[in-house]
Amino acid sequence: MKHFKRTALASVINLALFGIPDAHADTEALERRIRELESRLEKLDRAGALSAKPAAAAPEVEKLSRKVNTLERKLELQDEVTTGALQKLPVFDAGADGFKITSSDKKHQVRIRGAAQTDGRFYVEDNGFKGTDKFQLKQARIWIEGYFFKDIYYKIMPDFAAGSNILPDAYLDYAYHPAVNLLVGKFKPSISLERLQGDSDGTFLERAFPTYLASNRDVGIQIHGAFAKPGFKAETVAGPIDTKNTFTYQIGVTNGSGDDGSPNNDSPDTDDNKEVNGRLFAHPFHHTGYSWLEGLGLGVAGSFGNPDKQALKAQATPLGRSTYLDYTKVNTGFAAPTSDGATYRIYPQAYWFAGPFGAIGEYVVSSQHLVSGKTDIQQKNTAWQILASYVLTGEDNSFAGVKPIRNFDPLKGNWGALQLAARYSELDVDDATFKIIDPNQSASKAKAWTVGANWYLNSNAVIRADYENVSFDGGAARGRDLANEQVFATRFQLAF
User: Fold this and answer.
1) In sequence order, what are the residues at sequence separation of 6 or more whose Cβ sits closer than 8 angstroms to the Cβ of residue 409?
2) Which percentage of the chain shows pLDDT scores above 70?
3) Nearest residue to 303 (alpha-carbon basis) of 269, 264, 253, 341
4) 335-351 confidence digits (pLDDT tens)
5) So what's the pLDDT on residue 200?
6) What angle is formed at CA 401 by the lines to CA 400 and CA 402, rounded to 5 degrees?
7) What is the CA radius of gyration of the chain?
8) Per DSSP, what are the bridge partners of residue 115?
9) Contacts of 270 (CB under 8 A, 6+ apart)
């Protein structure tokens, strides 16, 4: 009878084993079955059923133990496979910096970003320019950036709000080593300091006069790099500007798009001549311990080229964007001039950020050879600006904008960050220009003073308000001055 019971119990155990799923079955089911078998073995031992006839029972126990061990090993292998698969899954991240997908080994990344700007512009007194008060979708951009194999960075940024230039940036940057990187595609030439500032990071709605004597965007190639102070390590920074390292340089060759010019999409170059541009910039007090001087940056940039009958873009006021120098308004007997021959630009530049204080200064000499029929002149325009800002709520000021300590949340008594700013800027047109251009329709000098306030709701959203007054020398009939342009403008901006 006891033998029958032992046989029956062994049969039950074997039948249970035959019913266990394959190693690829659900892990929880395998673990549960193993626990059941181990529990039955313990019960058999306690009851003494197996010890009555050890010779007969031993093979059954050994067989059962082998099967349990086999199942446990299969379970371990399955866990190893599952763990390995999980380790290869990409990492998804979403937050204030956009949406990112990063490979598990951190060698590849895709980041989705965006920016939207809606402006309101209102002309005060409207004496001479007769500007139209309007609301305007200034910017609507979604762009993709990131890197592959750690070193190959990319950026593709279309703008859906612009009437032209609907692909501002599209480039690759092979940033293998901080000292030497290779940038190719369409990007901002490294010339004007304020132009190199992010399009969503500026202190005012629009940039000052010196910016408009440099190209906006261009297509070409650039070598750039950075060096750190002895004892420190330089960071790899992709793109046309680097504000992180002690010493940086950029040397580029582009098609040459002229003052404030930018090729639309993939528009081809019109001649074989190319423009060479370069920039040196340093933070002499990096890592010195003088915190109030570590944010001081000094540099110089420039370019030279030899365009062939390149069209000239009209110059407009910074905020109101009203034309005050129009190269199509010529004296009797002249045709609209073109830039044909040697050109150069020189851009001394600096900024200084210390705690809540910030300042930017820039000067430019821009020379180009203008030709109209049989008349030619060497035009040399100059411009400069000085800008100062202060964050009243105590946050750090920076070239990349302001990040509030406490985000806007009025129910909790948090109001974000408030920044006040003022700027003065001038552009002086070379007198030789008016041998060709009608002085009764274009001004010889423009002077602008601007005040503004920026309310940072959080690191992504900001409300801006600017007032600008521009005065002119000449530009009106019978040698009189154009009437002052006075503009009040606001902007709501979201950038991530």
Assistant:
1) none
2) 86
3) 253
4) 999 999 999 999 999 99
5) 95
6) 135
7) 35
8) 141, 495
9) 308, 309, 310
Report which residue type is found at 271.
Answer: D
Intra-chain end-to-end CA distance of the chain, in Å: 80
132, 150 in Cβ contact below 8 A?
Answer: no
CB 182, CB 173: distance < 8 Å:
yes
8 A C-beta contact, residue 198 and residue 189: no
Residue-level pLDDT at 269: 81
Cα–Cα distance measured from residue 362 to residue 186, given in angstroms and rounded to the nearest whole number: 24
Beta bridge partners of 464: 454, 491
Structure tokens at 466: 């600017």
Do 220 and 274 contact (CB within 8 A), yes or no? yes
Closest CA to 207 of 453, 55, 457, 423: 423
By the 10 Å C-beta count (0-12 exposed, 13-18 middle, 19+ buried), 243 is classed as: middle
* Rounded CA separation 319/104 (Å): 46
| pTM attached to this predicted model | 0.81
Residues found in the chain: 496
| DSSP label of 8 | H
